[in-house]
Specification:
The protein has 190 residues and is mainly beta. The chain has one domain: Sandwich (Immunoglobulin-like). Helix content is 11%, strand content 37%. It contains two helices and ten strands. The protein has a five-stranded mixed beta sheet, with no helix packed on it. Strands 2-3-4-8-7 form a five-stranded antiparallel beta sheet, with no helix packed on it. Strand 9 and strand 10 form a beta hairpin. The N terminus is likely disordered.
Length: 190
């Protein structure tokens, strides 16, 4: 009797293994609701400084994670707002040695771009401006702190909401060891 039950159980397991995967049922992680990007209450000036009230008060914010799932070090963050015509993105980078080659890679919907610490962006039609605190760019003799790049991306360039977003950054601090961080998700415009 026990042998027969064991054979039935093994046969059921084999049937389960042989069943085709259902590609129409995404994993629970993909069922997560998109994060909400708020509409601005005032104009956003693309100047490399997120001093408008909406950046700390209303912006969607996410910190980058390292490959181990912990907060990325050096720290990086993405913030997003929109005004109905443009998606405003602010990218923050803690950086003890800011160099021109330091950059973020960003994909929003249908648009992928590369933007460096000077605010040079790899695609036309996207406005960008950077700002940094303390120190000077491309001078390893001083101690820098951080830089921010603000972008204004026409919503017509990215496609319909909700939008998939991927953003990443690698940095080589003064210890010479490259460290990378990233964030990805989906956002819905409020």
């Amino acid at each position: 009797m026990h042998r027969w039950l064991l054979l039935v159980a093994l046969a059921a397991c084999k049937r389960h293994e042989a069943a085709p995967a259902t590609h129409g049922d995404p994993s629970p992680a993909t069922h997560r609701d998109p994060d909400v990007v708020a509409k601005t209450t005032m104009p956003i000036t693309i100047d490399g400084d997120w001093d408008e009230h909406d950046w700390p008060a209303r912006a969607f914010r996410a910190q980058f994670l390292g490959d181990d799932g912990s907060l990325a070090r050096p720290s990086s963050e993405v913030r997003m707002l929109h005004d109905g015509q443009q998606l405003f993105v602010a990218l923050y980078a803690a950086d003890e040695n800011i160099e021109t080659r330091d950059a973020f890679d960003l994909t929003v919907g249908d648009l992928s771009l590369h933007v460096d610490a000077r605010g040079n962006v790899s695609v036309s039609g996207v406005r960008a401006k950077s700002g940094f605190d303390e120190g000077t760019i491309d001078d390893a003799h001083d101690d820098d702190e951080e830089w921010v790049v603000e972008l204004a991306i026409p919503l017509a360039r990215v496609g319909p909401s909700p939008l998939p977003v991927k953003v990443s950054r690698c940095d080589v601090p003064k210890d010479g060891i490259q460290r990378c961080g990233h964030w990805s998700g989906r956002v819905r415009l409020e």
